[in-house]
Design brief:
binds 3,4-dihydroxyphenylalanine; 40% helix; seven-stranded mixed β-sheet; BirA Bifunctional Protein, domain 2; 336 residues; 2 domains; alpha+beta
């Protein structure tokens, strides 16, 4: 019987070596380890051996069973693990899912481009508060008290003398109070006007202000700087003109126009059939502003300008309703 045990062990080992799929392993288990398998049959035979032989044979048989069971268990585990790694639940060769990236708001994009161009001409960037005093928004900018010029800008008052700034020009004063000339700065920011909201006007919009003060700054510098700007922003073939106007804080003052890039100056609904688009206000800084900030009015001259960002973006992209900028409609925003 010992020989039989040795023989079955050998047979089992060689069967196991060849069992390399799940079905073969299962056949192996049935042949040796199941209730009617050959090892169980040997245990059955054990009953009829002599009492002297029993202990040694029983021990050998038990060893065979333990050996076969653990060899089978190991082989089964190995097979399961290897099949796990060949049948992955996903296909690593598939292209990845695209990550959707947001875009900057068209107003932010427009401001960034304007600022980039002025930075290239040596301007730095400054900002100021949106809640202002009457002094910075009007008084220091040479709007006399009760002067009708204040009516040009419908104002949201928060308290007496406290208001939401109606333009970025107050930051000119704040900046000059803090810095001695030469001053070369652009000031982007939000402004507020107490107006009925419509497709053409809004209570909230953005401006970019500019200020350049130094010894010997002339109207020629104003013109050269703004022409350089519009050529970079609208393309070098753009036509432009300046037209006299009035602002309390500049003297002389000029509005800048460019030829309508939609109709090329022929006249269309965008330029209201004028062929020209007004794009900014500008002028030589009024000496009263220098007096208000303690600059020497004999020594320094300078120019300032201000442009509406929504207006520029509207013209550029052919947008027909200013309210779209503040509605957070992704169908609109995704186009930029
Ligand atoms: N602050 C003016 C406005 O809101 C725009 C402006 C015009 C600003 C002329 C300037 C300037 O600095 O020189 O209508």
């Amino acid at each position: 019987m010992l020989e039989k045990i040795a023989h079955i062990k050998q047979e089992f080992s060689s069967d196991l070596a060849q069992a390399n799929d799940a079905q073969a392993l299962e056949n192996l288990r049935i042949k040796y380890l199941a209730r009617k398998g050959s090892i169980a049959a040997l245990f059955y035979e054990l009953k009829s051996v002599s009492p002297e032989e029993k202990p040694a044979l029983g021990k050998a048989l038990n060893e065979l069973r333990t050996f076969a069971q653990s060899a089978y268990d190991d082989a089964k585990l190995k097979l399961e693990q290897s099949s796990d790694s060949t049948e992955l639940p996903f296909d690593v060769t598939l292209p990845g899912r695209p990550v959707s990236v947001g875009t900057k708001h068209p107003i932010t994009q427009t401001i960034e481009e304007i600022v980039r161009i002025f930075k290239g001409m040596g301007f730095t960037v400054a900002t100021g508060p949106e809640v202002e005093t009457d002094y910075y928004n009007f008084g220091a900018l040479n709007f006399p008290p009760d002067h009708p010029a204040r009516d040009m800008q419908d104002t949201f008052f928060i308290a007496k003398d406290i208001l939401l700034r109606t333009h970025t020009s107050p930051v000119q004063i704040r900046y000059m109070e803090q810095h001695k000339p030469p001053v070369r700065v652009v000031i982007p920011g939000r402004v507020y006007r107490n107006e009925a909201v419509s497709a053409r006007s809004h209570v909230l919009f953005h401006q970019v202000e500019g200020l350049y003060v130094d010894e010997g700054v002339t109207m020629g510098d104003l013109k050269g700087t703004l022409v350089a700007f519009v050529k970079q922003f609208y393309g070098s073939s753009v036509k432009y003109k300046f037209r006299p106007t009035f602002f309390p804080f500049t003297e002389p003052s000029a509005d800048m126009y460019i030829s309508c890039f939609i109709c090329n100056g022929k006249g269309c609904s965008m330029c209201k059939y004028a062929g020209w688009l007004e794009i900014l206000g500008s002028g030589m800084v009024h000496p009263h502003l220098y007096e208000n900030v303690g600059y020497d009015t004999e020594k320094y001259t300078g120019f300032a300008f201000g442009m509406g960002v929504e207006r520029i973006a509207i013209l550029r992209h052919g947008i027909d309703d200013i309210r779209l900028f503040t509605e957070n409609d992704l169908r609109f925003l995704k186009q930029f």
